[in-house]
Specification:
This protein is mainly beta and 151 residues long. The chain contains one helix and ten strands; from the N terminus they run E-E-E-H-E-E-E-E-E-E-E.
């Protein structure tokens, strides 16, 4: 088993063979830290999962009739019960496409596309990189970024 410890300004990680275990520092932007991690490791495609806790999260909801996103920010302590998503390339830059489920103190849940969140407690992620480059481009008819396997 090949292992390597890695460190960024807002994250630390352990690479085990081809899989990464990533921890984000408390009070850090989840998207900023994970994007920095992906860039530093040259990950151009893959799958990501995660759990943790946040005290602020901005979610997005896509409205097909308008082809626009509606953003809403929640400022309260919440458990990250699940993050799932992928990594791809858009306009030459890495893109994290993440969906999140957040548990509130009253045991209700929020869910949606994650725009960003601030870690308050733990942020633990597993990255499964693919050995290929995957590109997304905007589908103007639908209004969202989709895989383009021709690129």
């Amino acid at each position: 088993m090949d292992t390597q410890n890695l460190k960024g300004s807002h994250w630390s990680a352990k690479k085990v063979d081809h899989v990464y275990l990533v921890s984000i520092k408390n009070q850090s932007s989840m998207i900023e830290a994970l994007t920095d991690f992906v860039r530093s490791q040259g990950i151009q495609s893959g799958e990501v999962t995660g759990i943790g806790a946040v005290d602020e999260a901005t979610l997005r909801f896509f409205v097909p009739s308008t082809k626009k996103y509606v953003d809403k920010t929640f400022k309260e302590q919440m458990e990250v019960t699940n993050i799932s998503g992928n990594v791809s390339i858009i306009n030459g830059e890495p893109l994290l496409h993440l969906h999140i489920t957040l548990g509130r103190e009253d045991y209700t849940a929020l869910a949606g596309h994650l725009l960003d969140a601030r870690i308050r407690g733990a942020g633990e992620f597993i990255f499964y990189p693919f050995n290929t480059r995957v590109v997304k481009i905007k589908d103007e008819e639908i209004g969202i970024n989709l895989y383009n396997f021709e690129e």
